[in-house]
Specification:
heterodimer, A: 24 helices, B: 440 residues, alpha/beta, Arc Repressor Mutant, subunit A, Structural Genomics Hypothetical 15.5 Kd Protein In mrcA-pckA Intergenic Region, Chain A, eight-stranded mixed sheet, Ub_act_enz_dom_a_sf (chain B)
Chain lengths: 536, 440
Amino acid sequence: MIIDKKTQKYDRQLRLWQASGQTALETAKVCLINGTATGCEILKDLVLPGIGSFTVVDGKIVEGSDVGNTFFLVSDSIGTNRAQAVTEFLQELNEDAKGFHFSEDPVALIENQPEYFLQFSIVITTDLPEKPLLKLADTLWNAKIPLVIVRTIGFIGYFRIVLPEHTVVETHPENVIDLRLDVPFPALEQYVNTFNFETLDSMDHAHVPYVVILLKYLKQWKQDHDGKLPSTSAERNEFKQLVQSGRRNVDEENFDEALASVWKACAATKVPHHVEEIFKNSSCDSITIESSNFWIIARAVRDFVSNEGLGLLPLAGNVPDMKADTSNYVAMQNIYRQKAKEDISAVRTRVHDILNSIGRPAEFISDDEIDSFCKHASFIQVIRYRSLQEEYITEPKKLDIGRWLQDPQANIVHYVLIRAMDRFYESHNRYPDAATYFLEDDTEEVSEEAKNEFNTLKTYVDNLLREWEITNYPEHLDNHIHEICRAGSSELANIASLLGGMVSQEVIKLVTKQYIPMNNTVIFDGVRSTSSSYIL
Amino acid sequence: MAEIQMQTDVPTPQDGLEQTNKKCPDRWSHLYKILDRRGPFADPSFTPGHGEEILLNTCKVLVIGAGGLGCEILKNLALSGFKNIEVIDMDTIDLSNLNRQFLFRPSDVGKPKAKVAAEFIMKRATDVKVTYYHGKIQDKDDDYYLGYQLIICGLDSVDARRWINATLVNLVDGEPERIRVLVDGGTEGFKGQARVIIPTITSCYECSLDMLSKQRTFPICTIANTPRLPEHCIEWASVIQWPKERSDIKMDTDEPTHIQWLYETALKRAKEFNITGVTYSLTQGVVKNIIPAIASTNAIIAASCCNEAFKLITNAQPYLNNYMMYTGNEGLYTYTFEHQKKPDCPVCGNERVSMEVSKEITVEDFIEYLQEKQDIQLKKPSLSHANTNEKIYWQSPPFFEQKTRPNLEKKLIEMVKQDDEITVTDTTLPISLQIVISYI
């Protein structure tokens, strides 16, 4: 077997999201509104790993300042359509990604033909004013297409994900061990009973898997304690003594491993709280022809738990490495795997029954998808984002913003400034831009114009705070107003690239449905080199 | 924090600068907003309006590594106004680099990374001068490193980082004007870190060795006798079977036919033991110790490094003090903190290290202990008695190795008394460590 060129090229990323993630990426169609420095950096990090296609919508003509901060332009690009110019340079990065450009003013396009954007699997905006943004967000929300809103101003970066719901099965948790030590299933119990510690020679005794050791002594403990597990720390210590008493010498590493896992063994196996919450969701109650695969399988697993699962999720079936000889280890591994298979098979039957009840064929959901869901059942995630309407108009997070703003180190201040800047733009058709900050011993002074600039932006900040019923004006806001005026909507290459990395990573998570995306806003502060996430 | 002296008087010719500016007016207008205006968070010593002279014309920056981080760093520096850049890298371009190292094309496979990267940047950003060196950082001397105001590292090797860190700390030699700031970035999958190291003033790379995740190793007896995981079978193929069956050929993990052989051999063993999961890809991952890498994380970390470099050189904002950690697999999270200097750091500390060891420990076991200790991790330690200069064990030259080899079996206590001091050096690292021994 010699692996193909494509697998070689993508090797370092396939180790993160496997072939299934790569296929999802390769079928995704991403749209970028405005080919700004930040926009191009986002696309660069999506074209390189092989996104299916990208389309740049931009009505602007390339200027010298664009060439200065964008790697995907040269001085010869000046005067040409920015959409086309950046698309051509981005296309050079990877022939697998197909690049398209549309030299049209996105604001007009959103106004006149918003359905244009429904052809994409994800839409990213940079540098888009508030009014068209709200309209685009509405259109995409109704079509359940993810929207990512991105802004960079000076040293500050902001981005927001807008999407009704995102479900993830392959969350890639770091530790997926589910050994059922407190509630061994019959096949596991039978296997443990085949061991007679007394008759083992010293070599075999030192190679009994620690899972067997623990189960053996837990059984003994339960017999002496009305079927209960050790629950208090005193009892756990007593139980450790019991395990220790079976040890023949200090070199038995399997006993070390057993003792180190006592705490875990005594913890009750149960459905994690966040999974119970997912089961309580109305999407899990009412399965219809509209239901997504995720919810259909979730319902089947819920029913499994309350029936043949005896209150537990399907077993994942993974066994960690432990001190053991090969045959014992492999035999034990097979017992866990067999049980996992049985659980999956039970869930599969339930999935097929549900599909049948809504008039779908059994093949509608593949066996692989059911397998994967069962193996990750303890780690599934459902993220419900807030809409932009809720954030901006119907239910702004007034109380939270007011509370967060009191901390001078909190990055929420940049959110307030960005919103104020957008208001400034609405009425002036440009962003604040002036040298408003001077030191006392500076020879220069603040010009009248600059003073006006500062005061105008501050008025918008005040208005916002009033709308949010925030009565005490945090003093540290003034400095941030100065900094925004200083930045003058400049886009620094470093911040653009940093945001490009962060946004592309979230896009990859959304498109592959692997790993857990952020919810719902991230703000990066390149002055302090800190970032924060907020649910706004 | 102490003031850092930045060397700003390096004259460099700027041929064609004027012409480019004419061709591309307003090119730096984004940068000049920041550089021409005072800001409330900038250091009071920041002088607006001097951007061009401090940044654009004179500053010399060295970039170590032209891989995933290096390509990003070079692009960011060129777009941030840096005009004098040198890049060092010893590698050549591989097909598996192309998913993130965006200065390279399929036709560049096999060519030196440093050369292709430098030429690409100069082609795209015409008035930037990027020189390159295709070779090892260890080939260069102190004067070479003193020639740069700032050094940015985008490396995937711990050893190379330790070397450059120790070299820059040793360079200072008590004279603050010899301080050269090191900005270091690293990534692994969706995680990474960026940090600013001001040699002798802030914590250094060596101070934080214990933060590295421990490399996964498998005991040789498991590999030989009780394999359980597919990884055990692969290690068996490469560590035990290759030397046995193919001792005449040197194993090259970049050679597909070699990986193929290891894969087939591991697969055979796995079948014999009923172990599942040996694949070609896993074989390659285990023997090459492959670390997953994507464009996104490299972009984040490289940009953070260059943002700090820009702030350090221009003073336009305060710089990072001194560590930012990044995690992106579950939500998006950064943690920015001041990593503390370790008083007994073997590179930048001035306190001696005290160690308690058993009276029974042999010289050989003590050496193994030094190699495994998470906060020291020496590669090839050589030991001498600090007071008498008597050699306890030297790894090289061969003459001394041979002469001191019999000592390996001796107990340490026979050569080093209670509270005596040992000097430890390492041929692979420019460091020397004083250890006071006490016995328990």
